[in-house]
Design a protein that fits this description.
alpha/beta; Rossmann fold; six-stranded mixed β-sheet; two-stranded parallel ribbon; 16% strand; globular
Length: 304
């Protein structure tokens, strides 16, 4: 997948036809009453990202977002603003070649019926069209965590991309949410949610080690200004040192700038250079977030 080009006209047409705006409720923007099989991780053997031609290396970018409980505001922000801005910024600045984006809705595999839904890798308006077809289950178990680790497992075992297989370059994987991640994926949870199996439970540390072979892995923590936020962020930072950034919930409309700044830093630019390209007011909103990013050496290089 991934052929086609992203145009402003297609975006404006989609916005108009679907009435995508900040006034709409998440349940209006995302109107599915159940998950479609084509997006459920249990039904997917493999997702692929392929080069368009020999001269254009496709760069897969995975954006996974929490859809539990009251997280509909995050899905709404992505659909009405941030995914579009991320695509246009990447195409404009050419930080990476031929970006292809896959979106993933993340729930809680301990309580939800559809804890992971994933779109195809696309490079045109289908990125957002497929995003809008995901189901906001709005579940979660109130059990001190969500299943962000499902996406790490899926990416490491059920995605193939030319970026790595042909060019030995890493793709990008982002998770976004406001909660902790459950510490392990059990063998039973893996059988229940994927077309593969494991003989044993897999810890997050093991999953991160595996997925980092082919991806730059980052987490964006939404800071709601509550006492638990500091502890949640600290635990994420222990799991992904230098690859976890906080963003204040009031600045969620700057999510695209944060994603592209993280990519810019990973591609070799300094934090200051990554911020200078932005409007000053918006740069100031994410300066603290960007300062938290310092990808470790093992996240930058590939060893054979």
């Amino acid at each position: 997948m991934g052929r086609g080009s992203y145009t402003a006209a297609d975006w404006l047409s989609l916005r108009s036809s679907r009435n995508l705006n900040s006034e709409q409720a998440p349940t209006v923007i995302f109107d599915k009453k159940t998950a479609e099989n084509i997006y459920c991780s249990k039904e997917i053997l493999c997702r692929r990202s392929c080069d368009v031609d020999e001269d254009s290396i496709a760069t897969p970018i995975i954006i996974g977002f929490d859809v539990t409980a009251s997280m509909g505001y995050l899905a709404k922000e992505l659909a009405t603003n941030s995914v579009h801005n991320t695509v246009t910024d990447l195409l404009s600045d050419k930080q990476v070649s031929s970006p292809q984006i896959l979106c993933a809705a993340i729930g809680d595999c301990k309580s939800d019926k559809y804890p992971l839904q994933v779109t195809q890798f696309e490079s045109d308006i289908r990125i957002i069209k497929q995003l809008l077809e995901l189901y906001l289950e709005g579940g979660g178990g109130g059990n001190n965590g969500e299943s962000y680790n499902l996406l790490w497992y899926f990416a490491s075992r059920h995605i193939k991309h030319d970026c790595f297989e042909k060019h030995k370059k890493k793709a990008y994987l982002f998770t976004i949410g406001d909660d902790l991640c459950h510490g392990t994926l059990s063998a039973a949870e893996i059988r229940r949610n994927f077309q593969s199996s494991s003989e044993h439970d897999i810890s997050n540390e093991e999953l991160i080690m595996q997925v980092r072979k082919k991806y730059h892995v980052f987490h964006i923590h939404i800071d709601k200004g509550i006492p638990a936020d500091k502890e949640i962020f600290n635990q994420w930072e222990q799991l992904l040192p230098g690859c976890c950034a906080p963003i204040n919930i009031k600045d969620i409309d700057c999510l695209s700038e944060l994603i592209t700044a993280i990519i810019s830093i990973t591609e070799g630019k300094t934090a200051n250079a990554s911020l200078r390209r932005l409007d000053q007011a918006r740069a100031e909103k994410i300066a603290r977030s960007v300062a938290a990013i310092c990808p470790p050496a093992e996240n930058k290089t590939i060893s054979f």
